[in-house]
Amino acid sequence: MNGKLIFLDNRNLTEMIDKYTTVVVLELMVALVSALVIYRLAKKNFVKETIESGRFDTLDGVRGIAATMVAIHHSFFFYGYATFGIWSINYLGKGLLQVIVDYMGKASVSLFFMITAFLFWGKVLDSSKGINWQGFYIKRFFRIFPLYFAAVFLSFSYVIITTKTPFTIFPYLRDSFYWLTFDFISTPNINGFPFSGSIVAGVFWSLSYEWIFYFLLPMFSVFAVNKRTSFFIVSLMFVIIAFIYFFNVEIKYWTQVHVLCFIIGGGCAHINKYYPAAINMMKGPVLSAFAVGVFLACIANFDAPYSHIPSVLIGISFLIISSGNSIFGVLSLKFIKMLGTISFSIYMLHGLVFTVLFSPMIKSGVSFQLAATITIPVIIAVSTISYIVIERPFIDRGRVFSKGMSDIIQLSKSA
Predict the structure, then answer these.
(1) Second label for 85, Cα 20 to 30 Å away, from 50, 207, 268, 323?
(2) CB 343 within 8 A of CB 63
(3) How far apart are CA 178 and CA 302, in angstroms?
(4) Closest CA to 407 of 145, 214, 137, 132
């Protein structure tokens, strides 16, 4: 098995790299065409989500592209696992192609963290009357948990169906407790099923970072009084993370980088709120080219996406995009915005589709190219259905429940 990775002459290695480069381009094309076709078929279901929504219209586009990039990134892990028995992309040859595939996943997650901090710190800054935190947490729970629960349920169902040992309920109840903690504890193997986390492509870990940010936000909101206090807290967080980095404080390196992404997102929200003249200067094709150039320079010069300097460079591109720059109009295309609307479903469910559909095809001898061409449209179609059937109804219920709770509290206060 390992010999396939080790004993490769230069000619075979070149052929492999050419093959995988073709796969990257093919998956990108298939994803875009699939999104366009599905949007045309289902656009009546996305009228509200794809209209011009104001200041942060481009962020939907970023989310959609980022979620798609994560799925393509993980396709290489699933291929490696199905072919070589390893959850790794080192078979790509540790050159530029591997760096690009690595950035497709990791830089996308960094952008997710920046978007979260940008939107919610911006919301805090824009709220003159303060945030209804009870309503905030209710809405967040209804936004995240239903789809998360569905992904966990489907993962356990897959294990139960494919496991040949006699069914006993206790191990599944025990492991479901861990799997429903947003990865704050762990996601152990389900009833001993090998490498169970790969069923969902191991994406749950990022949810714990999101929830930590939500829990800390009320504390930080104390500093959202005005321009000076907002600048103080954002600058202080930058100073703290710089101190940790330069003085090698014993905090996990990737944790530092993820926290930095949230800080960058908050900093962009501060700039967007208090420096409108600078924001207006960031629109147009010149800055679009600059944002793309910075991102490409990052890939060309830094091979580790989860690092401090690459995160700052990605943050520069994000600042330009969050100012309303649509990157030559791409991020404002309606089918790209639809991808943004279904991005959480893509992120949460693509691993399951790869597990059920892609991996068996690879193991049966189907080529990477054909398996990817079949699987990517299915991921987008399943995610579209998931948004319509699960996400949107529970988002609406969250709003209704939050308003109902607020009304009850107001009535109790006036009684």
Answers:
(1) 207
(2) yes
(3) 36
(4) 132
The Cα 90–Cα 231 span in angstroms is: 42
Distance between CA 38 and CA 345 in Å, rounded? Answer: 15
Comparing CA positions, the residue from 324, 266, 299, 346 lying closest to residue 63 is: 346
Structure tokens at 205: 């870990």
- In the numeric block, the tokens 């930080």 are attached to 220
Q: Cα–Cα distance between 152 and 149 in angstroms, integer?
A: 5
**pLDDT tens, residue order, the chain (415 aa):** 333 443 445 555 566 667 899 999 999 999 999 999 999 999 999 998 888 666 688 999 999 999 999 999 999 999 999 999 999 999 998 889 999 999 999 999 999 999 999 999 999 999 877 899 999 999 999 999 999 999 999 999 999 999 988 888 999 999 999 999 999 988 999 999 999 999 999 999 999 999 999 999 999 999 998 999 999 999 999 999 999 999 989 889 999 999 999 999 999 999 999 999 999 999 999 999 999 999 999 999 999 999 999 999 999 999 999 999 999 999 999 999 999 999 999 999 999 999 999 999 999 999 999 999 999 999 999 999 999 999 999 999 999 999 888 878 777 766 6
Answer positive or negative: Cα dihedral of 88, 93, 94, 96.
negative
Closest CA to 291 of 263, 327, 323: 327
Say how far apart CA 164 and CA 319 lie, in whole Å.
51
Measured distance CA(220)–CA(214) in Å, rounded: 10
Among 215, 223, 57, 197, residue whose Cα is nearest residue 140: 215
Residues, the chain, total?
415
